[in-house]
Write a structure and sequence with these properties.
Helix 2 (about 85-95) packs across helix 3 (about 100-120). Strands 1-2-3 form a 3-stranded antiparallel β-sheet. It has helices spanning about 40-60, 85-95, 100-120; strands spanning about 10-15, 20-25, 35. The protein contains 3 helices and 3 strands.
Length: about 120
């Protein structure tokens, strides 16, 4: 079985009208999605949905797409930030009880959601 972590995903905050929380989708699979109250919960639920999708495709004798088969980005990038920002983010992550990656991912997802809401309101 393929490593589920190799499949890229997209995550976005759900609006209050959509029920709140976060939605996770997998570009390599048209119909594989899940949600959760937090980013971490959405990712965990997404992995369960992805495993179920892969198992169903195998049972139906259908091909299972390879990771990144849709020509999408890997989902990983590196960025340099000032030491003071890194220290502030690390301290905030510790206070929140989450990893630095989870904190930054949450901030990015929330920012994209706010921008989409702003553009939709125009």
């Amino acid at each position: 079985m393929r490593n589920l972590d190799d499949y890229p995903f997209e995550i976005r905050p759900l609006t209050e009208d959509e029920g709140g929380g976060f939605l996770i989708t997998y570009p390599d699979f048209n119909t594989c999605m899940s949600d959760g109250e937090t980013v971490e919960e959405a990712i965990a639920n997404g992995k369960e949905a992805l495993a179920g999708m892969i198992n169903a495709l195998k049972e139906w004798g259908q091909p299972v797409p390879a990771p990144n088969s849709g020509g999408v980005a890997s989902g990983k990038f590196l960025t340099r930030v000032p030491k003071s920002l890194h220290a502030a983010l690390t301290a905030r992550a510790k206070t929140e009880g989450v990893s630095l990656n989870t904190l930054v991912l949450t901030f990015i997802a929330e920012g994209i959601g706010q921008e989409k809401a702003h553009h939709a309101g125009r």
